[in-house]
Amino acid sequence: MSVSQESLDQIKTLADALALAFPHLQKDFECRFAKWKDTWPRGGGFWQWVRAGPKSSLYKLFSSSTVARGQERDSLVAMGSKIIPHIVNKLRDEENVFAVEIYTELRPAVEMNLHPTTSEPPAPADQARRILIHYSALIANFNDRVNAWEAHKLNFLTSSNSDHFIRHETFDALVEMGDIAVPLIMEMYSRTRVGWWCELLFRIVEGRPSGMGVFVWRELWEKWSKWFEESHD
User: Fold this and answer.
1) Low-confidence ranges of the chain (pLDDT < 50)
2) How far apart are the first and last CA of the chain?
3) Are 180 and 138 in contact (CB under 8 A)?
4) Residue 27 near residue 20, CB atoms below 8 Å
5) Are 178 and 204 a contacting pair, CB within 8 Å?
6) 142-175: per-residue pLDDT in tens?
7) Are 59 and 49 in contact (CB under 8 A)?
8) pTM of the full structure
9) How far apart are CA 144 and CA 137, in angstroms?
10) How many CA within 13 A on the CB side of residue 173?
11) Exposure of 32 by Cβ count < 10 A (0-12 exposed, 13-18 middle, 19+ buried)?
12) Distance CA 9, CA 110 (A)
């Protein structure tokens, strides 16, 4: 199984856009990831394992669970689903293969569906490829849902009634994606810093409509961008 260059580029584009829009979150993530990576095994045997082909017995027997512990790892997990695009982007480099541990901690239900039916535990690099393919498909799915919602909104360009924009199946389809969609929503939101992205966030993050009668776009952007970049401890 291989990951297409198009998928890899799609993941990198998203991560780069988020890093540009939310530099404090990116800096915090990179700092915590580097500290965690410093705890990983080193030496020739480790890199032999990382670079071994999928049929290598060493590759199959070595488990990344040996790095799935410690305060450095827990510090990364504490950042939550906001960092998933950055974790997936790290998996583009085979030397970051242990990042599968963070992804599978944050997305356990999804991770269970990434493993092939086999009596042997999946090698971390096999998991990494499946995660890359899965996440690329998720980005495409998100974009399709956004396009459907945008097409619906075109019917109400002159309307001031929020119900026209947020009470529709295309809006509900985005809400149904849940918290894994939040970083993608924030990247879209950062492009204009206005619009009904804020209402999507209220529904997904707080589990309710905002209940607002008047929407002050600047204040809403400041609220959600501050929340997205806040400290995680």
Assistant:
1) 58-61
2) 37
3) yes
4) no
5) yes
6) 999 999 999 888 887 767 777 777 888 999 999 9
7) yes
8) 0.87
9) 11
10) 15
11) buried
12) 22
Residue in this structure with the two tokens 């009596």, named with its chain if needed:
119
Rounded to whole angstroms, the Cα distance separating 164 from 113 reads 37
Distance of CA 168 to the CA centre of its chain: 25
- For residue 174, which amino acid is it? L
Q: Which two structure tokens, joined as six digits, stand for 26? A: 């990116």
**Helices in the chain by DSSP H: which ranges?**
5-21, 23-37, 44-51, 57-61, 71-77, 84-90, 100-106, 108-112, 124-153, 163-166, 169-175, 182-192, 197-201, 217-229
Find out whether 216 and 11 touch, Cβ atoms under 8 Å. no
- The closest of 150, 222, 152 to 193, measured between CA atoms, is 222
Q: What angle do CA 11, 140, 84 make, to 5 degrees?
A: 45
**The two three-digit tokens of residue 112, written as one number:** 């269970």
- Within 10 angstroms of residue 218's Cβ, the number of other Cβ atoms is 9
Residues in the chain: 233
What CA–CA distances, in Å, run from 125 to 31, 43, 100, 108? 23, 18, 8, 17
Half-sphere exposure of residue 129: CA atoms within 13 angstroms, side-chain side: 12
Measured distance CA(127)–CA(114) in Å, rounded: 7
Residue 92 tokens read as: 């583009």
